[in-house]
Structure prediction request, 254 residues.
Amino acid sequence: MVDTTIYRWADGVLAIEEWCDTNPGAVHVADSFLVVDGTVASMDRHVARFARGLTASNIEADVARFVASVTAAIPREGRWFPRIEAIDYGDGALLRLLVRPAPDPMETLRLATASSDPRTNHTVKGPDLVNLGKLRRNSGADEAILLTDGFVTEGAWSSVVWWQNGTLHRVHPTLPRLASVTESIVVELVQEQGVDVVYTLATPEDLSGTEVWILSALHGIRLATEWRDGPDLSVASERAEDWRVRYVNRRTPL
Prediction:
């Protein structure tokens, strides 16, 4: 197993962390993306989301210079899941890069309705990742689906879309959630083929009989095959397999 390599950004230089801090500062902002043999799907959108998170957190940084160094440090062979982050450090924030080996991809998964909603910052990725991870692990499924006023909002570490009568449904923008890079790519691909995409307020019960996709940078498109104590889902895999290929073809070199 290849270990994670941690880099810190200081004085305009990205350098390998030479010592292990067992109590790193709280995460203010974070973003991760899958790199396969030096290619990635829309890294620019991940960088833009990271930059927006820094601005919302009042963290000043030379993002362009940081990302240029990050790009140079990522291996060009193999499967990797790098994470860029800003953590609490002294009186300010420290930018870091974690070069992590990517786990094997999943094409299907089981869902459960989240038992609670631990989010404290609904639109910035980073501050809630630890608690959302615990929520997912304790759900008894592969992903926990968060509800807002009873409506499907997002997964702990993913976004949710579903197919009904040939139309792709997205979570309504009035519900507070993270902007999903993977979802934005999938929506573009679908619209390019002339397929209708609509925003919808839906309870879990409203998704009965629909084909539910769980989207994330790590796994791309995953087909939900079960919702524990929830709706019965359509589990035909052909459509997901087709669009998964289209999504993978969106990867471009770093």
User: Anything to note?
Assistant: The longest helix spans residues 43-56. Residues 5-99 form a domain with the D-amino Acid Aminotransferase; Chain A, domain 1 fold (CATH 3.30.470.10). The mean pLDDT is 96.
